[in-house]
Amino acid sequence: MKIILTILTCLLLINTGANDNNNFKAEFNNALKKNADISELAQGEAAVINIWATWCGPCIREIPEMNELVQEYSNKNVRFLAFSNEPMSTYKSFLKKRPDFKFDYELSFGDARSISLLKALDKQRGGTAIPLHILINKDGEVEEVFIGASPANIQKIKTFLDKQASAE
Asked: What are the TM regions of this chain, as residue ranges (predicted)?
């Protein structure tokens, strides 16, 4: 229950456009501590967080482009994290059919944290809000949140990553 409240608080800050979003990284790390499948974000580490599902066509189509970004920025102190409310077994079955759509970054499946994120976003936006991207800068602030898979959104992520890399 505490994780759900933490995530909902974080989403409220993000989605209301609150300027005081610099606590997101701390709150997110607090939620990550509760579940060991993904480690906390480090001080000075930027993050690209993706919420997706195997049934989401746009989510799947962007995997190769996202993997290219993972490779391009592999030594730039950036973490790529993907959350799905599906069990890992669903992803493994998907990979048997589509092995070319394997993620090159950290994954979390079926945990309360991602399920809570998805449900809160569904409620606020009136639909299934994926793929969802949350960009966290090296200061721990939410820089941008956007929905959808498109070349323009991949470019937004690339611009964000270039900005973070130049801040080193």
From this structure: none
Global confidence as pTM:
0.74
Q: What is 2-166's CATH number? A: 3.40.30.10
CB count within 10 Å of CB 93 equals 13
pLDDT digits (tens, 9 = 90+) for 96-105: 999 888 889 8
Pair 144, 122: CB distance under 8 Å: no
CA distance between the termini of the chain = 37
Segments making up each domain of the chain, as ranges: 2-166
* pLDDT tens figures, 42-74: 778 888 988 889 999 999 999 999 999 999 998
Maximum separation of any 2 CA atoms in the chain, in Å: 44
Predicted local distance difference test score (pLDDT) of residue 64? 93
Give, in degrees to the nearest 5, the angle at Cα 158 between 43 and 141.
35
User: What is the Rg, in whole angstroms, of the alpha carbon atoms belonging to the chain?
Assistant: 15
Task: Tell me 101's DSSP state.
Answer: G
